[in-house]
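Students often ask what a 'structure token' actually looks like in practice. Rather than answer in the abstract, let us consider Orotidine 5'-phosphate decarboxylase, a protein of 282 residues. Its sequence is given first.
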Amino acid sequence: MTPFGARLRGAMDARGPLCVGIDPHASLLADWGLGDDIAGLERFTRTVVDALADKVAVLKPQSAFFERFGSRGIAVLERAVADARAAGALVLMDAKRGDIGSTMAAYASAYLDPASPLFSDAVTVSPYLGFGSLRPALDAARASGSGVFVLALTSNPEGAEVQHAVRADGATVAATVLDHLKEENAEEARAGLLGSYGAVVGATLGGAAGEAGADLAIGGPLLAPGIGAQGATPADLPGVFGAAVRNVVPSVSRGVLRHGPDPASLASAALRLADQVRAVAE
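Now compare that with the structural description of the same chain:
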């Protein structure tokens, strides 16, 4: 398979640089007039996929909101992944998995093995058991042409107590994570290509990346949550990401999903945001 970084660059160029989350939490289901049950979950998910999968670059289902319904919820998630990919969207599974050894390998198999019913184009992972603990996922992604997004400088305020912590060598934890990702993307960078190993960096951070000594030029994509309900706008992106802004994939959930359940309104909101991001990234 063509590496994820190359496929992502193509999708961003063709459809605009935007990732839309699929987050069927109870309050949003209620806003759509749906029950907080399997029927509501399935109706919500199918509506979002049908409205957006042939229009946006990336769809990002949040696994937890499906897991809470048990095996029936996972079945809805499996179908959503397959239908979204069939319609041309890249699927980023927002699972934030992090463990060691055989357990990390099992997570990698669940999301990054083409034989798995949950096989996705990319997955989010947590590096806070040490970046080396992610090696099974990194290797699995390379083998299958998939991608990995590693938490680095997240948009939640609590993240700073870990991510801004300073190591014995004077580097922050976040800077160390980003340096590792730059190493993983080095081969693609030398060829002038976008790497497949990305970082999660909040769009709401302002100058915090600089304060953490973080170099965002990692040669791979930067998933940027925080657009919309968390307060950031596309206009904020250049100030946060600087020269790396062309590699930014802003992630929005409620800012688009609140326009449902009308499919046309969902699509219009997503396309409008994609155009706004494209304008500031060019």
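One point worth highlighting: The chain has one domain: 4-281. Ask yourself how you might have guessed this from the sequence alone, and why that guess would often be unreliable.
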